[in-house]
Amino acid sequence: MSCTTEAKPKLRKGLWSPEEDDKLINYMMKNGQGCWSDVAKQAGLQRCGKSCRLRWINYLRPDLKRGAFSPHEEQLIIHLHSILGNRWSQIAARLPGRTDNEIKNFWNSCIKKKLKHNNNSIIKSATSTANSTMSMPMPAMSARTQPLDAMLARYQPSLRAIENQFCNPEVQRSKREQNQFEDSAANSMNSCQLWNTYSAQENFSHSLRSMNLQEPSQARLCDQISWSSNTQLPLNYTTIPALVDSEFISLKENHNNNNQNELMTACDNYHESSGLTAWSTSYSDNTENCNPVGNILCNAIAQPMEWAINEEKISYELPQGYDCSGINEKEEAGAAAGLNSLGGGDEFEFECEGASAVWQDNMYDIHTAACDLDQMYFT
DNA sequence: AAATTCGTCAACCGCTCTTCA
DNA sequence: GTGAAGAGCGGTTGACGAATT
């Protein structure tokens, strides 16, 4: 090391030497974390505070776990990434002993590749399955392959009308509020949440256009729903009609209830045992008080647009082979009790050809659900 | 055995956010 | 209200070892 000038020491860059590590460790153990630029000076390091901070946080901190990621950690990262996207620090906050940098590297070097590989396998398996004789009723292919342009053509007039009528450009959520809500959602293993219209710029048709559409065969499990232009939306085509429609209703009802500040949540209930995914959405006037309306259960593939609004009650149809008796009972019970929604904690069971999944909504009252049948075929 | 490619990961860079005077 | 400084974040780079040619 040759940087010894007192007046204006040239700051070192690059890899840390063991001596530098020792200095930083000793200082931190004695003094704890303070102003990082002071740490650098007082520990006698020719490094900038930023470099010291990074070295401590990512490498020297005593509570770091290090070593290979366990399968459980890997699953957790994939799940959290589906909720939080590339917000590595937030993901790291939920994996004790792991750093954002470590997770980011792990994601970029390992998980990304694995997911890509898995998707390729899924495509192959889906292709071979499609070519073989199917005993299971396949959903209509037109709904599975509808191009985005056709979707937009179909929905945009309604969406524009909604935007003009209901979107409130005054509603802005602070970053802090947003983070708080994201935290609460990410802490629940069975939910993800994203954002709806906060400004005129983030309106529905805009959101729809910004979707990163994927063919159904390439859709990942536990996909993320987002209506924000800031976040990618790797949904498959088949989930869009139900989600868009549910949002349509949500807005209408929302407006009728004079509830202007809308927050959309989406619970991702993916069940490893069956490969079924159920979606639910709800909204609220703030993060605490969900205000569900309607009780809509629809199928995203087989009946993408067939269900209808019958005043207060929404009719729905599930495709042949699905047992929705649980849903019926709940809905009927709710209707008999004069309720127009199902409450948090309600449970439904989806069944098809022996595969089943229990969907329990733990966090939010249920507004809309769409059972993503693609997962049935691809798992 | 040497050259090249690939994968991993520590560290840097540039930006945004927060805090404080 | 404003600007400066520090903190934090995510994208990117580059060093280095392993694998491959």
Architecture overview:
This protein has 379 residues and is α+β, with helices and mostly antiparallel strands. Among the domains are: 13-62, Arc Repressor Mutant, subunit A (Orthogonal Bundle); 67-123 and 149-165, Arc Repressor Mutant, subunit A, CATH 1.10.10.60. Helices cover 42% and strands 11% of the residues. The chain has helices spanning 18-31, 36-42, 49-60, 71-84, 88-92, 100-131, 141-145, 148-166, 175-186, 204-210, 240-256, 325-336, 374-378; strands spanning 192-193, 264-270, 277-283, 296-299, 309-310, 313-314, 347-352, 355-360, 368-372. Strands 1-2-3-9-4 form a five-stranded mixed beta sheet. A two-stranded antiparallel ribbon has the order 5-6. The protein has a two-stranded antiparallel sheet with strand order 7-8. Helix 8 (148-166) runs parallel beside helix 11. The structure holds a DNA duplex (21 and 21 nucleotides).
- CATH architectural arrangement of the domain at 67-123 and 149-165: Orthogonal Bundle
CATH superfamily caption of the domain at 67-123 and 149-165 = Homeodomain-like
Provide a count of the helices: 13
Can you list the strand order of the major beta sheet?
A: 1-2-3-9-4
Helix amount: 40-55%
Distance between the terminal alpha carbons, to the nearest Å?
57 Å
Give me the Rg, rounded. Answer: 25 Å
Number of strands: 9
CATH class identity of the domain at 67-123 and 149-165: Mainly Alpha
Instruction: Predict the CATH topology of the domain at 67-123 and 149-165.
Output: Arc Repressor Mutant, subunit A
Question: Which structural class matches the secondary elements?
Answer: alpha+beta
Low-pLDDT segments: 1-7, 121-379
Order of helices and strands: HHHHHHHHHEHHEEEEEHEEEH
